[in-house]
């Protein structure tokens, strides 16, 4: 008994306040103290899957899929986690062809508008990487090379007798042995001219000689920025860069002047371009082979511009991005220049480009796609000191799977990759052969063997944790001390909080959280309860006196708030609070691993264990990999083989 009143602990038994000197003096505030030893967790909100919208989404994309779980969070995790291309597949970005594994997640990728079939650039909405062990659907032929998971979407049509219409999305598994046409090229590219192409300002130094040709100082020269504007001048510059990329070199020898040299039988075309740009040139014949050459003057400023935009040395040649993004009629002319200078036209009309630059070869495939043609790039037999590649222009007609080439299965174990685009289509290359493919992040098939549990188990095993962020729950935690919530709110990513405010809530009738290590020792318990009671009494008296002090404040609510916000300063960290939280599955797993640990504070460990136990009932596929391990102090810690998912 304390002060003639029971001070209960929440389990219904009275507590005696003892001290080393006997009974603690009567404190009236002790009448309204309640001691708590366990937090309580309430699950107050769950997600709901709108199955009508999911079915509409699937119908719009021509696919079917259903899950075997009734837990909304598990359903959404499975929905979000599907990927498909093997590790040899490349995708076209605005920085050239890249393996899906090498994307830096900032670059736009080439897509196809599924309604207009027009080629477009689009920045992916999401990126996926996944460990896969199973069957791939593969097709290897003269015009196509693909290797994808069975649920990967293909963009095409079964109407092979009318292949320019009826395109839609079908999973590779659903194609089966039927003939199915996929696109190898787009049906148009808008393109655009830049407003201006600039040559940056350059500053350089030269040794100045006197009449006896003796060095007598150094002169610094500045060339101001040059701006190329107007469609005709920009068109001329694009074509001149193309000639340089195939048959150009840099003249940068000491004492011989600086400039760009274009060789080959293109004198009239090259000099006409120079004239359009206002550039001076000289003609000479190479004494070594009798080939006429055009030396384009312009000094270091133009030399650096050509090198920076189109490379230096045959294996490093390329075209700048703004040239590749010109309208399709200009790109057709660019392709013709590539063929005339570094290519060949066979008697049957087949056009090829031969180059030692892998970058230029890939850019040629981009150009062909934008002018409505498909392509293939293949290495040639070694005939120089460096590898050579042949880019072939193909007809651009749809490729028929299960016609000249059949879809077969092979076992695969390794990474698979994908991106998500709003168009749902991406331009990919494998073994040098290109086609437009559906992106499979939003594709679905029948559940894999083992259903949702097996699917989620695999996600946990490979650590593909981002998909867990789509599943979220709402909780109310009560019976928590302020010191516990101070630690809890440090978990920021994936969490949201709303906590009881001591400015608005009266703590005159209060609850306090007593640590087990103190409650189990009578002497420590008496000291703790004595301190809590005094703090509580001080709070009550401060509220009373502060309320009187603010009696002239006409706003009744503000008067109470001003009193309580000052008085709360004496309340201990043991004061009970309530907190509303929202957290996703990935954030909850991180919380459990950090706080349901032997190294965490006991109070928050209890809370984490209770959250785990609740979630193992609520979403077992997402949380049943945890096991509770007893600790010497009678509490538990959680252990899992899938940490840091």
Chain-averaged pLDDT: 85
Q: What's the shape?
A: elongated
- How many distinct helices? 17
As a percent range, the share of helical residues equals 25-40%
CATH topology-level fold name of the largest domain: Alpha-Beta Plaits
Q: The biggest beta sheet, please?
A: 4 strands, antiparallel
How many structural domains? 4
Cα separation of the termini: 51 Å
The Cα radius of gyration reads 37 Å
CATH class of the largest domain: Alpha Beta
Poorly predicted runs of 5 or more residues: 1-30, 441-448
Beta-strand residue fraction: 25-35%
What would you call the structural class?
Answer: alpha+beta
What is the strand arrangement across the widest sheet?
A: 4-30-33-31
The CATH architecture of the largest domain comes to 2-Layer Sandwich
Number of strands: 35
Structure, described:
The protein has 645 residues and is an alpha+beta fold. It has four domains: 1-36 and 508-574, no CATH class; 39-82 and 449-502 and 576-645, 2-Layer Sandwich (Alpha-Beta Plaits), CATH 3.30.70; 90-184 and 397-442, Hedgehog/Intein (Hint) domain (Endonuclease - Pi-scei, Chain A, domain 1); 197-201 and 232-393, Homing endonucleases (Endonuclease I-creI), CATH 3.10.28. The protein contains 17 helices and 35 strands. The strands form twelve sheets. It has a four-stranded antiparallel beta sheet. A four-stranded antiparallel beta sheet has the order 6-5-28-29, with helices on one face. A hairpin with a 2-residue loop joins strand 1 (18-19) and strand 2. The longest helix is centred in the last third of the chain and has 28 residues, at 522-549. It starts with 17 loop residues before the first strand and ends in a 6-residue tail after the last strand. The model is unreliable at 1-30 and 441-448 (pLDDT under 50).
